[in-house]
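Try this one yourself first.
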């Protein structure tokens, strides 16, 4: 069985997005390719993923042109559960699975599909916190950008005990991988 990993980027002061869910502060930053914490290496080991409604809405919004048409294909080949209380905007070709189920129910489905590959909790921090609360989160991988936001959506709005497993420099980022201490 694979791990359940919250893989994300954060500002130096611990925010994953601004208060209005923007990631403009992150776009355009450079990271290194290759290595254990590199995105391409990470996503290659992911068998299923999930995200909250705001994360999905941001991806969808950033992938549209001025007329509202999608300008790119869905970025994931894995099945993706979207935790939401409304119907997410459609994305042709995406294996989207909107859900209102508790995280433990969805985690079981994701783990079954992922098999020995990882489950990726894309975000946001509140969703990752729900996985943490239920003892379902194994690792947190954080790519720390050299910017402070002062306020915004926190990395993980919970107390969590973590043990550092690895740290590396990746372009502009410092990447750290932590095990969740239970």
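Now uncover the answer:
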């Amino acid at each position: 069985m694979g791990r359940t990993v919250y893989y994300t980027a954060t500002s130096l002061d611990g925010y994953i997005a601004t208060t209005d869910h923007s990631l403009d502060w992150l776009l355009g930053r450079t990271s290194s390719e290759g290595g254990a914490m590199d995105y391409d290496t990470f996503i290659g080991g992911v068998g299923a993923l999930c995200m909250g409604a705001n994360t999905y809405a941001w991806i969808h919004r950033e992938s549209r042109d001025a007329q509202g048409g999608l300008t790119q294909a869905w970025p994931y080949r894995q099945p993706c559960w979207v935790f939401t209380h409304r119907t997410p905007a459609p994305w042709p070709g995406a294996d989207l699975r909107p859900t209102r189920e508790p995280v433990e129910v969805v985690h079981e489905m994701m783990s079954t599909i992922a098999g020995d590959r990882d489950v990726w909790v894309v975000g946001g921090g509140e969703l990752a916190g729900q996985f943490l609360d239920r003892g379902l989160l194994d690792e947190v991988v954080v790519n720390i950008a050299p910017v402070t936001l002062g306020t915004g959506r926190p990395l993980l709005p919970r107390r969590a005990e973590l043990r550092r497993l690895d740290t590396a420099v990746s372009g502009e980022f410092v990447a750290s991988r932590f095990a969740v201490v239970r």
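Discussion: Strands lie at 4-11, 15-17, 46-52, 80-83, 96-99, 118-123, 139-145, 153-154, 162-170, 173-180. DSSP finds four helices and ten strands in the chain.
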